[in-house]
Write a structure and sequence with these properties.
Layout (H helix, E strand, L loop, with lengths): L1 H7 L1 H5 L11 H17 L10 H20 L6 H14 L7 E3 L6 H18 L2 E7 L8 H12 L3 H4 L2 E7 L4 E6 L1 H7 L1 H17 L3 H17 L21 H36 L1
Parallel strand pairs: 1-2, 2-3
Antiparallel strand pairs: 3-4
């Protein structure tokens, strides 16, 4: 019995029992946490050094100089914008309904409406299509005739397409115009009227800046020639003769004689009247 008890309780007796078990102190854990946090803080990158006053002033002066150079630099016009007007007319093609391409922006709504009415009626009767083009300035071609031919070839590249087509070009800055067309159009109008409108209607009225009247009168003259009616004619250049401010020799001699007579009369009066007064005064005494 003693043997059994001693063998069964021997493990318990071998390890003494203590009422309080040893535990880790909170100070040790907190110290480990603080230590790790300190390591994390010390591992952060250091902030960049602050710029001194001289470097700041240098950077500010450089930025101001760059801004001044950009603002004072003149804005050069784009090369494409200089040629956009005349080249856009070529690329856009002929007008589909209006018969007018007013790129110079000089035509009124009434003029555009009148041209549309005249040309639509002509096309319905004679199967001839005429377009009117205004451009402010030409830079790619020497004159309006070359540009008109270019427009006709660009819009109607084949002979079949351009045979019954006509193009009237008015250049406002150069005060000139041109008319070109296919074989059927030229034959219907005739060289005489074509030359007359180019030398009379377009340049004369354009010189007076009557652009609306220039195109309307040209259109009426072309329609009259195609219909076989009498030519309404065109305006003529006005000869502005300046009157001379200088007088002729005869007028000068006449004025000189009159001036001499007047001066002589005044001199006589100036001497005679005082003498007469003196004589009357003396005679009374």
């Amino acid at each position: 019995m003693e043997t059994i008890l001693s063998s069964s309780f021997s493990p318990l007796l071998s390890k003494p029992f203590s009422p309080t078990q040893p535990t880790k102190s909170p100070s040790s854990s907190s110290s480990s946490i603080i230590t790790s946090s300190k390591k994390q803080v010390t591992s952060l990158p250091s902030p960049p050094p602050k710029k001194n006053l001289a470097s700041r002033l240098q950077s500010g002066l450089a930025a101001a100089a760059l801004s001044l150079a950009i603002n004072s630099c003149p804005v050069l016009p784009s090369l494409d914008s200089a040629f956009a007007s005349e080249f856009d007319i070529l690329s856009q093609g002929p007008p589909t309904e209006s018969y007018v391409v007013d790129d110079a922006n000089v035509l009124s709504r009434v003029t555009k409406s009148d041209l549309k009415a005249l040309m639509s009626d002509l096309e319905s009767r004679k199967n001839l299509h005429v377009n009117f083009v205004t451009v402010r300035k030409l830079t790619s071609k020497a004159d309006a005739f070359e540009y008109a031919d270019q427009v006709l070839e660009k819009w109607y590249p084949t002979v079949e397409e351009g045979s019954n087509k006509g193009v009237v070009v008015l250049v406002t800055s150069q005060k000139e115009g041109a008319i070109t067309g296919g074989p059927a159009f030229v034959q219907a109008v005739g060289d005489t009227i074509l030359d007359a409108t180019v030398s009379e209607n377009l340049p004369v009225l354009a010189t007076e800046e009557k652009y609306n009247e220039a195109l309307v009168s040209t259109a009426k003259r072309l329609v009259a020639a195609i219909d076989g009616l009498p030519d309404p004619g065109g305006p003529k250049f006005k000869e502005n003769k300046r009157e001379s401010n200088f007088k002729s020799k005869e007028e000068t001699e006449e004025k000189r004689g009159q001036f001499t007579l007047v001066v002589g009369g005044l001199l006589v009066i100036a001497f005679v009247v005082p003498m007469a007064q003196y004589y009357a005064y003396v005679s009374k005494k």
